[in-house]
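Known limitations

Files may contain more than one protein. Parsers should not assume a single record per file. Below, a two-record file is shown to illustrate correct handling: read the sequence, read the token line, then continue until end of file.
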Amino acid sequence: MEWRFEHSARSAARKDEVWPYYVDVPNWRVWSVEGVEWSRLDGPFAVGTKGKSKPPGRLPAGSFRVDAVVPEELYRSETKLPGARLLFEHVIEPAGDGVTITHRAILRGGLARMWLALLRGSIEAGLPAGVERLARIAGSRTAAAPGPTD
């Protein structure tokens, strides 16, 4: 089984104005309030680096691995679940004088249906709100871009 859910938003931002928000993993909660309580990356923002993120509410923190990075265009993370995999893709595409930002969740595997029952509500609530907020924040020329955090 495979389940997909995605949301896109237009932004007045340039690709190089959106990308820093992805790389600044400890501050994902700033733009993904409904999706991330806290997050960390245990190394550089590069393929193979592992991290951990905690969704708000009762769901436990989960480990992830960055499995694709194309600077200023795309990154994807993967969380291995018993019997399934959860992928999150984040895509930035040029659109007129700005960009379209798309976030996509993909759940696949033999036990995906079971995991979907647990995760669907959180993903469907948090993902669109996060994309919309990121589009607004990155598109606001007065907003300060995130910087390195400790």
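...continuing to the second record:
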Amino acid sequence: MSTVKPQRDMTEAEYLAYERASSTKHEYYKGRIYAMTGAKEAHNLIAGNIIAALHPQLRRKGCRIYPSDMRVKIMQTGLNTYPDIAVVCGPPQFTDNVRDTIINPIVIIEVLSVSTERYDRGMKFQHYRTIETLDDYMLVAQDHPHIEHFSRQENGLWIFQEATNVALRINIPSIGCVLHLQDVYAQVEFEQENTAITREIPPEE
């Protein structure tokens, strides 16, 4: 999808008014809005499986799990975006009384696709790392069993681990949860991507 080209740069207030009236989702960064692509079946199944696996582990811990319709604002950079899954523990903090934009996720999970993988691994993760509350970031492949997990340590360093087959699991220490890959990929039929889909992303700094 191409960048939406407003006649002039939007303020964030104008973006929010536009977005709340829109039938499609857009990211916002430095005055520009970027249309987000739709998701295929595998993507939706994986996201749903993750929410189903985490919800019973979280419901008695004072944590909330949000799907991709919940917007996240990165306060230090100004990016407004829609992670596939975000977890907040304790009271959620919103940018305003509409309660559709959170600022304090502790876990963010993105399901990768051809069109978003470079962005999710690169510049988007750079934005996410500036979120003070964020402790765990996960990238989940949709064309084969593979989860990459980045966990922030007390010294600020990020530690990487991965699981590459359905017999393995990923521990998420910040929320005390476990994701078994056999649950994440339940009913997912893998197919080879043949055609790359392009998506214009916010320019790098």
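Parsers that stop after the first record will miss the second one. For reference, the second record is described as follows. Confidence is low (pLDDT under 50) at residues 193-201.
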